[in-house]
Design a protein that fits this description.
The protein has about 280 residues and is α+β, with helices and mostly antiparallel strands. The protein is built from 8 helices and 13 strands. Helix content is about 25%, strand content about 20%. About 30% of the residues are buried.
């Protein structure tokens, strides 16, 4: 079985921090991950029978299942009930655990954890496709490539983050570079003063399934509490804006004018309130 590198103080732990509060579930990260890794470190990624049941496996054998390899997947859940309900989009990929069972069960040493940065990888030349690592991983992060007969997984885009031919701003995983809302962050979670570690501390970032004891490096930031009033941001509410506009629109000057403005503004607010209450 494969052993893990000895943990030492100050060891670099490269990983992702994913903000569940602002992820919109657009799947851009998954698509760009697939695009980059179709020609990168773990390429090619299989998409045989991608739409299920449209191709034949040969020798008269039809396979109704889709054999697609995706290192990054997005799940969507409805959390809470009634007024407290909300939609949460949950991206999932390899968490590059500190004590990954997928590594220790590997009989050939194909699955291993790098000592210098904590990234978990697979050596395809040593992999025999026994799938023990996929059974051991509780996060479902291992992908079996039917075309190559080996296991594949997220590499944190190791061929990007250390590529000196790229501009420094581009030396981040493909999923991070493409996120349109900035819900994904990349950095050294072994450094308590790094930007990602500070973000985790400020927002109460947490491990996925900590009870398993695998100590994932990747962290999730929880959704923020929902705002209950439209003025919770400190900005004027829409009703206040409409009232001000109505007051400005009525001619001023004299008691009768003031009374007209108040009456008009009151009717407008009553109408707006009725519309918004439907």
């Amino acid at each position: 079985m494969t052993s893990l590198p000895a943990a030492t103080a100050g060891t670099k732990k490269l990983g992702l921090v994913i903000d569940l509060d602002i992820c919109v579930g657009c799947h851009a990260c998954a698509v760009n991950c697939k695009e980059w890794n179709a020609g990168g470190h773990s390429a090619p990624l299989t998409d045989w029978n991608a739409y299920s049941g449209t191709e034949s496996a040969g020798d008269g054998i039809d396979d109704a299942g889709a054999w697609g390899v995706w290192f990054n997947r997005i799940h969507t859940y409805e959390a809470g009930d009634g007024a407290e309900g909300r939609t949460v989009h949950f991206p999932r990929s390899c968490l590059h655990c500190e004590t990954p069972a997928c590594v220790t069960v590997c009989p050939t040493g194909a699955s291993y954890k790098r000592e210098e940065d904590g990234i978990v990888l697979v050596n395809a030349d040593l992999c025999i496709g026994c799938k023990l690592c996929s059974w051991a991983c509780p996060y479902g992060a291992r992908e079996y490539d039917h075309a190559d007969g080996v296991m594949k997984k997220c590499t944190l885009c190791i061929d990007r983050i250390y590529n000196e031919n790229l501009e420094e701003i581009d030396r981040v995983p493909a999923c991070v570079s493409t996120c349109p809302v900035g819900a994904r962050h990349f950095g050294d979670l072994g450094d308590p003063d790094s930007a990602v570690s500070t973000l985790v501390a400020e927002r109460g970032g947490y491990d996925l399934m900590p009870e398993m004891g695998y100590r994932p490096v990747n962290k999730y930031l929880p959704p923020r509490p929902q705002k209950k009033t439209c003025g919770a941001t400190g900005a004027p509410s829409r009703l206040e804006q409409l009232a001000a506009e109505a007051a400005d629109a009525v001619p001023q000057g004299g008691a009768s004018g003031t009374g007209t403005a108040a009456t008009t503004g009151g009717k407008l607010l009553a109408w707006v309130d009725a519309v918004l209450s439907r």
